[in-house]
Hints:
This protein is α/β, with parallel strands linked by helices. Helices cover 36% and strands 21% of the residues.
Amino acid sequence: MQPMTQKFQNYIGGRWSDSSDGKTFENRNPANWQEVLGTFPLSTKEDVDRAAKAAEAAFRKWRLVPAPERGSIMRKVGDIMVARKEEIARIMTREMGKPLLETRGDVQEGIDTAYYCATEGRRLFGINTPSELRNKLNLSFRVPVGVCGLITPWNFPMAIPTWNLFPGLVAGNTFVFKPAEDTPQTATVLTEILLEAGLPEGCLNLVHGAGTTVGAAITEHPVIRAISFTGSTATGRIVAEACGRQTKHVCLEMGGKNAEIVMDDADLDLALEGALWGAFGTTGQRCTATSRLILHEKIHDEFVQKLVAQAARLRLGDGLESTTDVGPVINEKQRKNIERYVRIGREEGATCALGGGIPGGQAGSTDPRDLTKGWFFQPTIFTGVTPTMRIATEEIFGPVLSVLKCSSLEEAIEINNSVIYGLSSSIYTRDVNKAMVAARDLETGITYINSATIGAEAHMPFGGVKATGNGHREGGWAVFDFYTEWKSVYIDYSGKLQRAQIDNS
């Protein structure tokens, strides 16, 4: 007898409930597509409306709770996450495939964010300045925006929601939260943890479902005053247009085409480790993944030879297995997209030096490495890539690395900056002058010196420029700028009418 599939629900207005029309969707393991992890509500516009109204009602009380008290709840959240770290990591690996080593890091990012935001509850600083008039005091301080909509992706199903929910809640906002359809259980666990820590009902409302239905309804709902969206640039533009029509706050974190630059004076072994981790960690499914490798011509051939040899040793498999280096891609649609870009690369004249296809496996075997059960794709390296090729300019979101050649630092920077994206960049060099020039001139929101293009820390601003984002940042102190609005207060104790610039001219 087949075990009964677990049924999950939305959390709206302090109650767990099904979608308004009772429809559901399945959550499956990308490493073993036969394994159904649970069913979740395929929610409707009506569900979003209920969630928004519940968040609006909760906001009236939550905004009046002292910020340090709101922060203390995040501290409890961090404690609970520490106790449940391994359990959460295993749930996440089954949902989206990346190895346990990485999902543990994803949970740790949430833990770090919880503790960081707990302290920021006592540090929501305002700016106070002298008045230009006598016996008058000028103050400014932060106030919450109100009801916020949060639409998150599947590749970091714990870290990215916490980057937004924790600071947003500490700042006094309430939320309608739609996680990706591929990782709904991690979002459910996060919601349960916040409730266990003492978050009042209505402050967080979890609504599962499709982006075209639930995501669109969140973006369009008149009660929701701010939207944070992480996903593709194409969808982000649609969200931005909708928010622009309604004069809503909007924070966009979108695509990337990140490059690691390796100069001829670099520590090549260190750069090789960075390239492998940056390109094939999370199966290349990071917005900060190393998608391009720009090698100085003097070290190009040697580096490529070592890179291909090392990448060929990476072990594909279920992320729950300790020997796995690279897990599956998220679903069949994404694997087909990766296959399409591999065909494009070959058609453009690039050389596929490694991989480029779907790995074989032992069909019907009980071996956990039966790769035919999941959406696996070989680590792939293209050489002979030129800056204008599509595989060098378009986001693939998979384990595909394009190798380009340069003759100078200036050319490397020009190649890096030639794409529409600007999230992360990396340079390996022993020359401090080259490093500083690169840090100044690379058109990205994040630059790493002698490190891979991935590795953001919870207390630092995260985000990009150009088609990667719209100027806001997640993480660190900068995210509080998005989740608060400034209020200026003038206190005149002169006992007479003072007309500012008129009387001060």
